[in-house]
Amino acid sequence: MIFLNTLLVRLTNAGLRGLTLLSKFALVFFLAGFLEPQDLGLYGLLAAGVGYSLYLLGFDFYIFTTRELIGTNRSSWGAILKAQCALSLVLYGIFMPLLMLVFFSGLLPWAVVGWFFLLLVLEHLAQELNRLLIAASEQIWASIVLFLRSGLWAILAVVVMWMAPERQSLETVLQWWAVGSALAVLTGFTKVYGMRLGSWDTSVDWGWIRKGLKVVIPFLVATLAVRALFTADRYVFEYLQGLQALGAYVLFAGMCSALLAFLDAAVFAFAYPKLIADWKAGQYDRFLTGMKSMAMQTSVVVTLFVFSSVLLLGSLLDWIGKTVYLEYEEVFYWLLAATVLYGVSMIPHYGLYAMGEDKPIIRSHIGSIFVFCICVFVLAEPLRALAVPVSLCVVFAALTIWKGGALLRQRGKCSAIYS
């Protein structure tokens, strides 16, 4: 009975997450068909801006909080969560006014300022509740919150626009996005409230918060650096080619990002916990076997994805039926190459992470920003539309070499120790 219950939980969890991934993957295709290219481009800018700003409001503090929650009696969880809430209020007070610069600088139009801040707050709350439910081993509830936040609303938005062509607008997309995020927050909060966590009356431990910040800030800097590439690319492309052309970039980037989602869900999420366990246990041979297995699985997923996407691209563009996407078709192939390189770079990344070698990861991520800026500056004039995707290829190739070299050096040290 226990086995069957566990199997049911895992199948339900996998099904919800798979449906979420499929919904996000399909959304961009339907938006390309329903919306004008410039509206799809604006959606891409808004989504990238909201996604990046989440790191400023959360500071990746969940990394420290989750470690503290696990192994602690739930009667004490309230004090930990209250401290994180206090930090979030401080971060809101600092960064919310600063984020107005996004609109004063013209990076986003004032027409979406209300949507930007509404979606940012809802997305942040839903994200933190999802992480809390994972830490509480409430995997199904975490998947439900994720599905509401990223999957269900996308399905409903597409259905509405399909059945009512007059609703085919960016406004409809943003409305359903807000509804989905709000439902995710409500569902997550209801579940957490029902857990009856204790110690909420404890005063905020600012010393504990400072301790946590010392732990997470190096990881935050590295995350902000690498995630900046997936935000700045859209803004730079829009600056070089215009908002209509950005619609094509957003479509192709959305297609390619599915590869990373599949790799994370099908390979990395299962591989790296075992790598950590083998490394901590001193099982070096098993660690190497795990690395080879992860590399092999990555190769299979990448090969299947590349073959399928190239095979289907023509039919998908014909279905969309808009010339701008055909004009920029070459951008897709460069973005696909960049995404493959990034996926490959995650193999040594997780190897270093399992070994506790954080410095090469942090340094390579920070260095990637400088490489990207230099490449775009040099290539903007001769390559124009291809400057951004080619620069990403250079950056992710450099990341692969940098992390791979660091992993080989660590392997050499380990071979000497274990021989």
UniProtKB/TrEMBL annotation:
<feature type="transmembrane region" description="Helical">
    <location>
        <begin position="360"/>
        <end position="380"/>
    </location>
</feature>
<feature type="transmembrane region" description="Helical">
    <location>
        <begin position="332"/>
        <end position="353"/>
    </location>
</feature>
<keyword id="KW-0812">Transmembrane</keyword>
<feature type="transmembrane region" description="Helical">
    <location>
        <begin position="249"/>
        <end position="273"/>
    </location>
</feature>
<dbReference type="InterPro" id="IPR050833">
    <property type="entry name" value="Poly_Biosynth_Transport"/>
</dbReference>
<dbReference type="GO" id="GO:0005886">
    <property type="term" value="C:plasma membrane"/>
</dbReference>
<feature type="transmembrane region" description="Helical">
    <location>
        <begin position="14"/>
        <end position="35"/>
    </location>
</feature>
<feature type="transmembrane region" description="Helical">
    <location>
        <begin position="215"/>
        <end position="237"/>
    </location>
</feature>
<keyword id="KW-0472">Membrane</keyword>
<protein>
    <recommendedName>
        <fullName>Membrane protein involved in the export of O-antigen and teichoic acid</fullName>
    </recommendedName>
</protein>
<keyword id="KW-1003">Cell membrane</keyword>
<feature type="transmembrane region" description="Helical">
    <location>
        <begin position="176"/>
        <end position="194"/>
    </location>
</feature>
<feature type="transmembrane region" description="Helical">
    <location>
        <begin position="143"/>
        <end position="164"/>
    </location>
</feature>
<feature type="transmembrane region" description="Helical">
    <location>
        <begin position="41"/>
        <end position="64"/>
    </location>
</feature>
<keyword id="KW-1133">Transmembrane helix</keyword>
<feature type="transmembrane region" description="Helical">
    <location>
        <begin position="294"/>
        <end position="320"/>
    </location>
</feature>
<feature type="transmembrane region" description="Helical">
    <location>
        <begin position="76"/>
        <end position="95"/>
    </location>
</feature>
<feature type="transmembrane region" description="Helical">
    <location>
        <begin position="101"/>
        <end position="122"/>
    </location>
</feature>
<feature type="transmembrane region" description="Helical">
    <location>
        <begin position="386"/>
        <end position="408"/>
    </location>
</feature>
